[in-house]
Amino acid sequence: xxxxxxxxxxxxxxxxxxxxxxxxxxxxxxxxxxxxxxxxxxxxxxxxxxxxxxxxxxxxxxxxxxxxxxxxxxxxxxxxxxxxxxxxxxxxxxxxxxxxxxxxxxxxxxxxxxxxxxxxxxxxxxxxxxxxxxxxxxxxxxxxxxxxxxxxxxxxxxxxxxxxxxxxxxxxxxxxxxxxxxxxxxxxxxxxxxxxxxxxxxxxxxxxxxxxxxxxxxxxxxxxxxxxxxxxxxxxxxxxxxxxxxxxxxxxxxxxxxxxxxxxxxxxxxxxxxxxxxxxxxxxxx
DNA sequence: AGGGCCCATCGCA
DNA sequence: TGCGATGGGCCCT
Length: 286
Description:
The protein is α/β, with parallel strands linked by helices. The protein folds into two domains: 9-67, Arc Repressor Mutant, subunit A, CATH 1.10.10.60; 70-285, Arc Repressor Mutant, subunit A, CATH 1.10.10.10. 45% of the residues lie in helices and 15% in strands. It is built from 14 helices and eight strands. The protein has helices at 2-5, 14-28, 35-41, 46-57, 61-66, 70-79, 95-102, 110-114, 153-163, 173-183, 203-212, 223-229, 236-244, 271-284, and strands at 103-107, 121-129, 132-139, 142-149, 168-171, 195-199, 221-222, 257-258. Strands 4-3-2-5 form a four-stranded mixed beta sheet, sandwiched between helices. The protein has a two-stranded parallel ribbon with strand order 1-6. Strand 3 (132-139) and strand 4 form a beta hairpin. Helix 2 packs across helix 14 (271-284) and helix 12 (223-229) packs across helix 13 (236-244). The longest helix is centred in the first third of the chain and has 15 residues, at 14-28. The structure holds a DNA duplex.
């Protein structure tokens, strides 16, 4: 029966499988479930399970799951320890500086922001991505929002509307599709064709988001370090709150911010998704 | 008034 | 040592 019901695995539901596997793992990690047990739990044979991870992350299940451990998180933090120290001056070209160049960002003026986005027309659309379905929000000046759909599109849309209550939202898949196509492929963010992002928020928030843009893929930092970087060494908690409100997830990589202990703490779009992103990036980086 | 924090302590193996 | 739990401080909306 098991055989008879074993279904074809397609790329479309790869993420769903990965997501379920991660969720199962984080529940049972204490008892060290075997790969076989995890595969069975998500309804796959070990062989299929292996294929899914290869296709989705470019990693074996074992390597992928290893990327989700506390040990690995700590290693990430160690590697990222001097992420900000080396490039305090703008002329210096460290790796973080490089990344920074590929995303151009401009902040909406405080005045514009205070109006809650009044007069702004925001196009939105829904698109598949490596982490489920995404909602993309764009202005003529660049990408303003990126979120995720878990079941109900209206929930995701409401999440975005609540950020700019006075803006007019217009569905425009054609316009947002271009952003969606590039948002998850950082190798396409080139100096001559940067991914344009519009950061909308308070002064403090924008400064935090700008700092996030300097964290390269595959690296990580902590809330406290960001606070120090923006000259507010004791504001780690406020940084957490600002990171939490990041409208352009993934592109502004708030998933690369961890607690000082290496704990993943929280994620607006679900901790499981944060884990998925961190594991996926390990595969992208080799 | 509360957070996607952080640090110092303390009590347990 | 290395954890988990607790308490107090801190700073932005």
